[in-house]
Amino acid sequence: MEQRPITDWLPLTKKEVEKRGWEEIDVVIISGDAYVDHPAFGTAVIGRIIEDEGFRVAVVAQPNWKDDLRDFKKFGKPKYFFGVTAGCMDSMVNHYTANKRLRSTDAYTAGGQSGFRPDYATIVYSKILKEIYPDVPVLIGGIEASLRRVTHYDYWKDELMPSILKDSQADMLVYGMGDQPLRDMLRLLKKGVPFESLGTVKQTAVLRPNSEPLPKNKNWNTVELASHEECLADKLKYAANFKIVEVESNKWQANRIIQKIGDQTLIINPPYKTMTEKEIDTSFDLPYTRLPHPKYKKRGAIPAFDMIRFSINMHRGCFGGCSFCTISAHQGKFIASRSEQSILKELDQVTEDPDFRGYISDIGGPSANMYKMKGKDEDICARCSSPSCIHPVICSNLDTNHSDMTQLYRKVDAHPKVKKAFIGSGIRYDLLVDEFNKNNEDGNHDEYIEQVVTRHVSGRLKVAPEHTSDATLRVMRKPSFKNFHAFKNKYDRIQKKHNMNQQLIPYFISSHPGCEEQDMANLAAETKDMGFQLEQVQDFTPTPMTVATVIYYSGVHPYTLKPVYTAKTRDQKQNQHKFFFWYKKENRHWIKSRLEKADRKDLIEKLIGSEEQFTQRKPASKANRKGNASGKKEVPEWLAKRRKNEKKKRS
């Protein structure tokens, strides 16, 4: 591989700054991730935007916060400001499992090593900077800052925390994707506007003394939340706050939000309208090396980079609005799609990588099949305040035509250096079910899924119905499980038509608000009856800025303020989890006992069969549990006989 000059990357050291002939840095970025110069990594995107606006930028990646703090001082005082991000993940999600156990690896660190960033990294980094350079502005951003911009529940401390601006002592916060606010801020700074006068830039938040008047903007109305202190005293007020924040975050014509925190007022300016195709292309077309900085060569691979190295992101945003997901809270519900030209240009870059072997690992987005989707009449979208475009039903104004994606996939397939392009991102299967989505014009949904199944699946297609209980799914903002049955029937027909045998792998969540123990038992029974022997289930983790987390903490749904059951104790969570693994011998007696106590003997028969069947049954081999070499799920003899008898009875 040809050695690239070190100046192709943004500088990480003083020596690299000197190679560029710079005597001063305009902006220094402090990041909790290793520096990977690739458009999938926020630090690279922000750094390249700053560079594109004509500023001199340097990066401090994963500084040591425990020693003499030399990493924070190595570039000295920047001319304009420090930018701080915890990285591509909230640092607490990065560090801990749903059971609050410390993770042993970090996908965003060279060698996958843990321990290279602190808990609550944004707060730690910002406070250090304010102590060393009290007169230099600190701008915080990234997903950790974005999702903690107002009073929020922190699962790891098990308490409500104020806006991260308060604890971090930062001067300003950018929420959501930072491309638009950052460019506007940089252009104002270049004109000589002081940093402290940037208070009316959209998609930013600041803290001001209560005695100061709000910055004036005649185009904005202001809505006030219950204060942080009121939220601490009353969980219902905290829940009610969330509805306002979510609604305003998903509007084109949003209101400014304010919240009192002690003797200060949090001011959150409205978001920008969704990026245009030209704007998002500009961000993706910047001169990335698409590689980790050379300093990491001896420390080992960066797992998150290896995962996306040969993938292409087609769009940002997700209009699903799922209760447990932070994507729409950070990226927005409206889709910002790249042009076909920009995507194919990146494809050429990927195929020129000397390690490329002909396989694109993913061509997708937050949800793979939302590319180019938007409202048919955008005037209707401009007035909309719904957090989801597809729950409880698919909006009649939503254009769900999949033709652009199908055509793009075919162009990717036709590239002379591409052997196979996979869709690794999650597919919203409900958009492809005619009974649920009435907007299937000219059968383009069927054409799309057939293209995916026959050309872009690597043995398994993963989709996420998340649950089988309609009551739980309503809380999740997901469609009825009957739609998964309909999708599976369509999937199976395509497989049969093309003589294929690729597994369909459904993903589920346990312990989600609204899910009771019997709901998990029903889930296990229904999926077993469909022939699935599931190998993993995600345990719900409360993360800031989601409906599900508000319910978990407050006990009520923020839109109705009515109680919703949530499994919270370790035992309650483990009990739900065990039903998922009904086929494990060690769970059999426990399942039988729990279902007898619940007077659900019907589920005992469905899940573990009769005593006679169980004693005659041999444990499934490891190969049998995971499927045979062809990918086909082998059905145990006892289950095959039972199904045969049931079929005879029905006929």
From TrEMBL:
<feature type="compositionally biased region" description="Basic and acidic residues">
    <location>
        <begin position="631"/>
        <end position="640"/>
    </location>
</feature>
<protein>
    <submittedName>
        <fullName>Uncharacterized radical SAM protein YgiQ</fullName>
    </submittedName>
</protein>
<dbReference type="Pfam" id="PF11842">
    <property type="entry name" value="DUF3362"/>
</dbReference>
<dbReference type="Pfam" id="PF08497">
    <property type="entry name" value="Radical_SAM_N"/>
</dbReference>
<keyword id="KW-0479">Metal-binding</keyword>
<dbReference type="InterPro" id="IPR024560">
    <property type="entry name" value="UPF0313_C"/>
</dbReference>
<dbReference type="GO" id="GO:0005506">
    <property type="term" value="F:iron ion binding"/>
</dbReference>
<keyword id="KW-0004">4Fe-4S</keyword>
<keyword id="KW-0408">Iron</keyword>
<feature type="domain" description="Radical SAM core">
    <location>
        <begin position="304"/>
        <end position="584"/>
    </location>
</feature>
<dbReference type="InterPro" id="IPR006638">
    <property type="entry name" value="Elp3/MiaA/NifB-like_rSAM"/>
</dbReference>
<dbReference type="InterPro" id="IPR007197">
    <property type="entry name" value="rSAM"/>
</dbReference>
<dbReference type="GO" id="GO:0051539">
    <property type="term" value="F:4 iron, 4 sulfur cluster binding"/>
</dbReference>
<feature type="binding site">
    <location>
        <position position="322"/>
    </location>
    <ligand>
        <name>[4Fe-4S] cluster</name>
    </ligand>
</feature>
<keyword id="KW-0411">Iron-sulfur</keyword>
<dbReference type="InterPro" id="IPR022946">
    <property type="entry name" value="UPF0313"/>
</dbReference>
<dbReference type="InterPro" id="IPR023404">
    <property type="entry name" value="rSAM_horseshoe"/>
</dbReference>
<feature type="compositionally biased region" description="Basic residues">
    <location>
        <begin position="641"/>
        <end position="651"/>
    </location>
</feature>
<keyword id="KW-0949">S-adenosyl-L-methionine</keyword>
<comment type="similarity">
    <text>Belongs to the UPF0313 family.</text>
</comment>
<dbReference type="InterPro" id="IPR013704">
    <property type="entry name" value="UPF0313_N"/>
</dbReference>
<feature type="binding site">
    <location>
        <position position="318"/>
    </location>
    <ligand>
        <name>[4Fe-4S] cluster</name>
    </ligand>
</feature>
<dbReference type="GO" id="GO:0003824">
    <property type="term" value="F:catalytic activity"/>
</dbReference>
<feature type="binding site">
    <location>
        <position position="325"/>
    </location>
    <ligand>
        <name>[4Fe-4S] cluster</name>
    </ligand>
</feature>
<dbReference type="InterPro" id="IPR058240">
    <property type="entry name" value="rSAM_sf"/>
</dbReference>
<feature type="region of interest" description="Disordered">
    <location>
        <begin position="608"/>
        <end position="651"/>
    </location>
</feature>
<dbReference type="InterPro" id="IPR020612">
    <property type="entry name" value="Methylthiotransferase_CS"/>
</dbReference>
